[in-house]
Design goal:
About 40% of the residues lie in helices and about 15% in strands. It has about 260 residues and is α/β, with parallel strands linked by helices.
Length: about 260
């Protein structure tokens, strides 16, 4: 799971290739009372930027409780989402049962606050689907599968649950044919563009430090896959962003769409 970054902050779920608006995902290793302060400062200072609040399973499993520290942060006008949070069986920095506990606490915080949940999943599709399905049956919540790049089953189940899918630089990688085949069939109105900066830079920048500007490369590849114009991708994914992250306000540059 990502750790706290202050310079530069992690930027996710950028809504369009034409805008520099982005979400800074706050996943902190600070003591709970200090949660996310550093990156909230970035969000406050950077026009068109917002934050999502989350905590790392390996550090805060015992402290989360019913999600109180997360809910306290949602009152901030720049905090528009919860997460990222989920299951990571690749690194497994915390036991699986602890990851599940913390994931459920984030889901509850998203449900209670009404803010979208940003879901992290790696090598854990089956358990991620099971937890999301169980949680949705207990009460609805909204969210997005961050940096979707895994099984078609996860994509279609997420859509059935009403979630969105974040598409990043992996879509452009040479060996991502299966991912491109899946994305080709997914409805454009449920897709977001994102960077996962500073990681996963798209081609031809793969292996270098990623940045939000490179989301234009992802938009271009998505347009090619869908057989539509880049402008259509920009309009749709920008509208999708503001539909999902309803607390966000569009920049003064004008209405999206």
């Amino acid at each position: 799971m990502p750790r706290l970054r202050t310079t530069p902050p992690t930027r996710k779920a950028a809504p369009s290739a034409a805008r520099s608006l982005f979400v800074i995902s706050i996943v902190a290793r600070l003591p709970v009372p200090m949660l996310s302060i550093g990156l909230l400062v970035h969000a406050e200072r950077i026009t068109g930027s917002f934050a999502a609040a989350g905590v790392v399973a390996a550090v805060f499993a015992a402290a989360l409780g019913a999600g109180g520290p997360l809910l306290a942060r949602t009152a901030h006008p720049k905090v528009i989402g919860i997460g990222e949070s989920g299951l990571d069986y690749y690194y497994e920095h915390a036991p699986k049962e602890v990851q599940a506990q913390v994931f459920r606490a984030h889901i509850e915080a998203a449900r209670t606050s009404g803010l979208p949940l940003i879901v992290h999943t790696r090598d854990a599709d089956r358990d991620t689907i099971a937890i999301l399905t169980e949680a949705m049956a207990s009460g609805p919540f909204i969210g997005v599968i961050h940096c979707y790049s895994s099984s078609p089953e996860l994509a279609w189940r997420a859509l059935e649950l009403g979630l969105y899918l974040g598409i990043g630089g992996i879509l452009t990688f040479r060996r991502s044919d299966e991912l491109r085949a899946t994305v080709r069939e997914l409805p454009l109105e449920r897709l977001l563009l994102e960077t996962d900066a500073p990681y996963l830079a798209p081609e031809p920048f793969r292996g270098k430090r990623n940045e939000p500007a490179y989301v234009a490369r992802v938009a271009a590849r998505l347009a090619e896959i869908k057989g539509i114009s880049v402008a259509e991708v920009e309009r749709a994914t920008t509208a999708n962003f503001f539909r999902l992250f309803g607390k966000a306000q569009a920049p003064d540059a004008g209405p999206c769409g």
